[in-house]
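User: I'm putting together a teaching handout on how sequence relates to shape, and I'd like one worked example. Could you take Protealysin inhibitor emfourin from Microtetraspora glauca, show the sequence you're using, and then write out its predicted structure as tokens right after it?

Assistant: Happy to. First the sequence, then the structure tokens directly below it.
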Amino acid sequence: MERGTIAVYDRTLRVRLRLSGGMPPLDRDIPVDGFHLPAERARELDALVRALPTEDVRGLLPPPVPDSAFYELHVERYGERRAYWYHDGSLPPEVRALVRFLLDVANGGAPGMTAPDPAPAEGNEGV
């Protein structure tokens, strides 16, 4: 870096969850920007995002059953963008934890208030 040059680092942390399908039908869009969260919640969001799968596993997942809810996640972290698509029967535990966090934030995140758990992935019912 040249002398006198200021380094600028992209510290963006944004997650958008789109819920659709299911019974009764869902249609919900939940955007969360880490900049607008309290510091501790922003660190929690960052840890949850870092825990997400790094590889595309869509071809390895079981097909959705009728009336499945669908989870579409768009993540922007420090300039890197990723997208994830899951349904009720394919939601891995680390993604389920992020969905639970986002639902909690969207519901106000009041102490003692918990968001409903997304359905566990098949074979992960006890997780």
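A couple of points you could highlight for students: The domain at 13-106 is CATH 3.30.350 (Subtilisin Inhibitor). The CA atoms of residues 15 and 32 lie 5 Å apart.
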